[in-house]
Write a structure and sequence with these properties.
This protein is an all-alpha fold and 266 residues long. The chain contains 11 helices and no strands.
Length: 266
């Protein structure tokens, strides 16, 4: 790892990280403030007026009756997938493919650092930034909950949910990083680096619509990010964590290996 490059990459991307953090923390605060056990029936009645398929696709079909399950349903069923996914797509493309496409990779490779050192540094930045983003979101969720509803959040289950979410985005960011490493232009890097996670996202939504399309969930990694199942911390959680970490290791490792051996147009 090269600390100078890591520092420069952080300086180039911290505003993007800050923007996504502000957006996500805003939604977290709003959703927690909406929790009111006495008005759950009214909320259910309101959702029943909406198209059933739309409610199911967005993961709002089951509304929790406790603060923990309420946050899990409303925040971790849809928003926690969409915003970090977009962050991974944007930053993953910037870290390698954009440097190759713009020619700035030639300057990086002219330094006394190997390709492996450079691309590993970029990978560590993406992993670190995803960890910081989701870690701060988890801590914010606990802080909001304890300030508005002291003692009502099951913190241990909430942390398990957030840990699995973090592992899920190690896998998604790894996919974005992999395609950023194998393509020399941002067009193809974004086509595949964005296309695969978005396909997972759409397949997961379709699988939630009804039994007719439930089989599509077998084609999406996001099916394993089922917030209500993950709160139990059972074998489903362990299986999901193992699969996410394997995918992340394969994608990051494959990206670094491919970039270190490929011919570059510079």
């Amino acid at each position: 790892m090269n600390f100078t490059l890591f520092k420069a990459t952080t300086k180039s991307n911290w505003i993007t990280l800050a923007i996504f953090f502000v957006i996500m923390i805003m939604y977290m605060g709003i959703i927690i403030s909406m929790f009111d056990p006495e008005s759950i029936d009214s909320l259910i009645a309101m959702l029943e007026t909406m198209p059933k398929e739309l409610v199911a696709a967005m993961g709002f079909e089951e509304i929790g009756t406790t603060l923990t399950t309420f946050i899990a349903s409303y925040y971790y069923g849809f928003l926690i997938i969409m915003f970090p996914m977009i962050y991974c797509i944007i930053v993953g493309n910037r870290l390698v493919a954009k440097h190759v496409d713009s020619g700035s990779m030639a300057y990086l490779l002219s330094t006394p650092n190997s390709r492996v050192t450079i691309v590993t540094t970029q990978a560590l930045y993406l992993i670190t930034s995803v960890t910081v983003l989701l870690g701060l979101i988890a801590l914010s969720g606990i802080a909001f909950s304890e300030s508005m509803f002291p003692g009502e959040l099951d913190i241990s289950s909430f942390l398990i949910l957030n840990l699995t979410t973090l592992f899920a985005f190690y896998a998604i960011s790894g996919i974005c990083f992999f395609f950023s490493c194998i393509f020399n232009d941002t067009k193809n890097s974004l086509a595949f680096g964005a296309g695969v996670p978005i396909a997972f996202f759409v397949l997961n939504m379709l699988a939630n619509v009804g039994e007719k399309y439930a089989w599509l969930g077998n084609l999406s990694l996001f099916t394993l990010l089922d917030p209500l199942k993950l709160l139990d911390g059972n074998s489903f959680t362990i299986t999901a964590n193992v699969i996410f970490l394997i995918v992340a290791a394969v994608m990051y490792g494959g990206g670094i290996l491919f970039f270190s051996r490929k011919n570059l147009p510079i």
